[in-house]
Amino acid sequence: MERMTTQPRFKDSPHFKDFWEKGNGKQLLDFSGAEVSFKDFNRFSANFYHVDEIGDQVVKDVYFTKKFHEASREIEDYIRSGVSDTDDVPESVKKLFAQTQHIPEWLDYRLLKSGAELCMRGNIDSLISLRDYCLMGGYDYAYLNKPLTATEALKKGAVKRLSETLDFWVNATRYDALELHAKGYEFAIKTRLIHSYARLSIKKHYKQWDTENWGEPINSWDMMATYIGFSLVFLHSLQKLGNTFTEEEEKGIFHLWKYVGYLLGIPEALLPDSKKQATEYFYLWTSVQPPSDKDSILLAHSLLNESLENPILKFKFQRKNLRYLHICCTWFLLDDEVCKRLQIPDVPNRNLFPKTKIMINKIYDKIISRDARIKKGNKDQMKVLEDYLSITKNSNFH
């Protein structure tokens, strides 16, 4: 079969130029000191058609040969007990765990700890960043969202989707979470196999999939961009909300997500070590992504209206107020052009809440110790996760 190639087909498009010359892309260039060009485009673009073949084979050998809950329990046993060469398990399972149980030489536990501490220290700002910048901003990339459309993620609802993302993020960013057999390690392996399961299902059932334009479903290049969202975009968002971080914490964020990416089967060459590298990699990827389409708008509005559907807050006026605050943060964190494309409603005094947050963060920095903020952030984030899990696990949010 002829090997597919792609071009930076949107590099001259208004949405690409606006982002990198005037919008958040320009801010990312200033923030990171990146030097962008298309000289390395071909080195990265092949990954638009590259997938995690090891994960896919495990799904074929385990999930497609038995009932889903039996397969899940089997995988959980492997994760918690480990797999050796002599175990009587499929070859694909041995391959997967040979890779994930191997600690790469570059792994630095001190940096993992620093990255986790910044995630916790950011407290609710971390969650605002994930939701209103990383997740909402990602909806502007039309091809990136095609697997969500193909797997009918909209029908599942934003509450459930947000709960799953939060569950993964929180469990990957606690102390020692990524040790072998620990909770974050477990989430990484399970997420990797969910991606493979979704990809194989899309290839089998979704006949309209346009591989040439959209790449393979959940391909390695799109995965890289997603994890740059958790590192570079997340850091930029924290900074925009008035948070400061040390050089060690910054390195730690990239290191943490590099290791998560490694566990998820993303090729190491795609995993950036710094904001400069991440911005340069991200620049190339954005050149193959068109702007929002109708599916993007549906996903964005599903996320906005999640606050109204979510029963965590008891009263309707509280839910409406929470939706308003998220809209304010979305306008503050994303480019105006992106918000207009996603049809984010305009609201009065939209800068008031973000500007108040910035002021509070500056005061916090002066009067509350780093350790106290880490401790409080961890507690508050765990509480938000518990609230989400309580409504999605014990209700009709499926």
Automatic annotation (TrEMBL):
Organism of provenance: Chryseobacterium oleae
InterPro entries assigned: Lcp-like (IPR037473), MPAB/Lcp_cat_dom (IPR018713)
Pfam families the UniProt entry points to: MPAB_Lcp_cat (PF09995)
Identification of the protein by name: ER-bound oxygenase mpaB/mpaB'/Rubber oxygenase catalytic domain-containing protein
Positions of the ER-bound oxygenase mpaB/mpaB'/Rubber oxygenase catalytic domain: 156-348
An example molecular function term from Gene Ontology annotations: oxidoreductase activity
